[in-house]
Amino acid sequence: MKFVQPTTPYLIVITLFVTFFYHPSLAVTADLKPVNLRTEYKPNPVVDAAKPRLSWELTSAVRGQLQTAYQIRVASSPELLAADKADLWNSAKTSGSVTNQIEYAGKPMTSRTVCFWQVRSWDKTGQPGPWSSTATWEMGLLNKADWKADWIGNDLTALGKGNVYHLPPAPFFRKETQLKTAIKRARLYVTSLGLYEFQINGKRVGKDHFTPGWTDYNKRVYYQTYDVTADVKTGKNALGAIVSEGWYAGYLGYALLIGNPVVKNFYGDVPLLKAQLEIDYVNGEKETIATDQSWKTSHGPVLEADILNGETYNANLEFGDWSKPGFADVNWKNSTVYPDKAERKIEVYPGNQIQVFQELKAKTVTPKADGKYLFDLGQNFAGVVRLHVKGNKGDTIRLRFGEMLFPNGAIMTENLRKARAIDTYILKGNKEGETWTPKFTYHGFQYVEASGFKTAPGPDAITGIVLTSATPQAGSLETDNPMINKLYQNIVWTQRSNYFDIPTDCPQRDERLAWTGDAQAYIKSATFNNDIAPFFTKWLVDLNDAQRANHAYPLYAPAPNVRKTDTYSPGWSESGIVCPYTIYKTYGDTRVIRQFWPNMVAYLKFMEDKSKGEYVYKERSFEDISPKGGYGDWLSVGKKTPPDLLATLYYGYCASLMSEMAKAIGKSEESVYYEAIFNKIKQAFLNHYTDKTGQFKTDNAAYGDGEGYVIEGKSGFDGHTQTAYANAIYMHMLTPEHRQKAGNWLVDLIRENDNKLATGFLGLKALLPALSATGHAKEAYRLLLSTEYPSWGFEVINGANTIWERWNSYIKGKGFENNSGMNSFNHYAFGSVNEWLFGNAAGLRVGEAGYKTFTIRPEIATEGIGSVKATYHSINGLIETAWKKEGATISLKTTIPVNTTATVFIPTTNPATVLESAKALKTNPAIRVKEYKDGYLHVEMGSGIYQFTSQN
Ligand code: BGC
């Protein structure tokens, strides 16, 4: 699922091919070739948008190349397309440089239509390039009436055992069918309330896990579509499914931990299946085999299956070939049909399905006391294990999962809290050995403690299966500093572990909720690592489905009632604005803005009402929520920033983002309106939270004894903090002079604090960017490179291979400083430094949405780092920036995609020494030299690969 990043030789080969060998009848004169054709962000997907959005990227060997026009043709068959008979849509030659977010504008789409499409582009001289290769998309089931399938279930709740955990077995379903004649095409449309695995003729369908994904099942459920033409045959066929409770009926979050009256069954009690196999015969006939009461059901080897608590499997209860034709299901009973909810939508899954990313071999197997064995998989991750074991019938292997070991080598599971996270396998005693992988649970772990092996297992007994939402890799970052490289890899692993259908906070403990604060603090960082457009297209629906009756966005989404007092919080709820904005800015996606505009407007109104029309949140404005004031600068390690001051900054930030988003969708009046609100908030903030010199302050006495404020209100609040200045600068809440002063205070505060950061979740993401923005890149680098507590380096030198929830989650030689329940070793919030690594160290910043324009302004470290190389595959193509310092020479290589414009800031103390490919800039017409300022020579250029050097 990785983007294939076209390398230069590859481009050249394509170019040569296109230039010299392409069929001359097409009258191709330009080398501009569209590649990576996608629909709704995906290659050849199934979609249900009425007007799917198309995109492509362009390749060319010509510097400064761009598109002046394009033509899209869409046909209902490849033959028609090849014959230039675009029966669905022919856009004709359309001028413009746009290559993405282009809405299909042809004949109305109907369910099941397969569309074949191509595009060609005209280059800067007005010459057409070749047609692209053909891509497809397929329409899903657009109307509820297309669904013939019933919701079927088998109520096994009474079989649930256990005092603490009530876990019933997973029901199996099967249906045999006779397919009449030669089959042309077969599609399986399938979903469940709960999780499902579907099989046809003994074979698992698809590569996806945890389908159909988590939504507010009262409002909508997603389905998957599989092309199963190759899996069915004329004659007898069998369909089978196993269904488990999943997010629908299983345990969720910390409900059990905090004694919530409801701990499971948040959406329903009985997991249900809905599936239909649609057959198109060669002779033109059609047939649909759909779930109904005639499907047989039973329960067998899957004794328990729960996301948080694990899976128990008794291989002695296996059915054999239960999903193959001919299986004797006489003891199975008919399914029960359950009513549908009229208001529940059923839609195509818009995200990236969870899939296997990689397998991890055990690094070591260590015998422990009591005949237990400890497996080290070498990496903390989210997923499961595949167990391979040989033994006697009835032997029971029990697997416990931990992220870390105690200094004495024992597995640490305390931080799982009430997530039981135990998998159990009961052997059937197969002589050749037996292999088992659980289907409906996952864990966050590096270590597995196994009991029940009768003979010493080898490393092959346990294999790690890494699961993640299959977001295609988009970026990479490498420096000449191993610690920073490790930090970057830790960030990537943490994102991988937590982008799991929704952006979870952590994969291990009884939580795994998409906390909105974490999501908004990290989203920008995430964009650099992976293409998260589909992932957030999905989650933004969850977030808006969970918007509260008072229009506040929630603390987490989906938002089952795991704690009554979980309502909203400043810094968390703003996810409803910050995340759509980031998706818009990164991918040029204006649809998300339009889609959620009324919700966002309502939320801004909520914020305004909450400020009592004063445009500032004075002390104690959020006393009514729990914890008081909200989560504030969660897990900060220094002076406590008043939650209301921070909330005011966030309010201003949201107003400015609303103004920009309004403009992007052509709502100019609203844009002016929110700009005015932004200005009012800035003024009100200054009036209330700054003294005569502009220094930030708060009325600490107003908070009384600070009791009830989760961020240690009892130790008192102070406006003059790193977090307050960092955010005010980051959010453009200050005038230029005031901003500079704030930057200087920020540096003073860091120096006063022993050159250490003191920020929490909300302060951290803004900290380094704010330092850089006020000319203090040197301070930013100092914090980045520190290895003292609290710092990223401190985690790395203490052995981290993921980002930890707390800076001192573990200290070598000392153990767990915070070995309470809240000590996750896979928590991405502090990974938000990625935004600075790409945006400042490598220097890549988006300009016009979708990186249509961008800047590259690398910040050169004075020590500790001598080179930084970053790649980023934008929706407009591959961008690269790589700088290196060698003595007095700084080199900077940049790759600018076709059809984009970059402003590159070449670091130099002497602009006269700047060369590109060893030649003076003047001699290169592709490069427009702008000005020399603040130690950078600004140049502007179009596509190509540029090698700059400067002397310093
Ligand atoms: C989660 C956080 C979350 C927080 C709310 C924690 O338990 O793991 O990441 O944002 O609660 O403050």
Automatic annotation (TrEMBL):
Cited Pfam families: Bac_rhamnosid, Bac_rhamnosid6H, Bac_rhamnosid_C, Bac_rhamnosid_N, Ig_Rha78A_N
Protein EC: 3.2.1.40
Residue ranges occupied by any Alpha-L-rhamnosidase six-hairpin glycosidase domain in the UniProt entry: 473-839
Domain Alpha-L-rhamnosidase concanavalin-like: 369-467
UniProt GO BP: carbohydrate metabolic process
Any coiled-coil regions, as ranges: none
The protein's name in its UniProt record: alpha-L-rhamnosidase
Originating species: Larkinella rosea
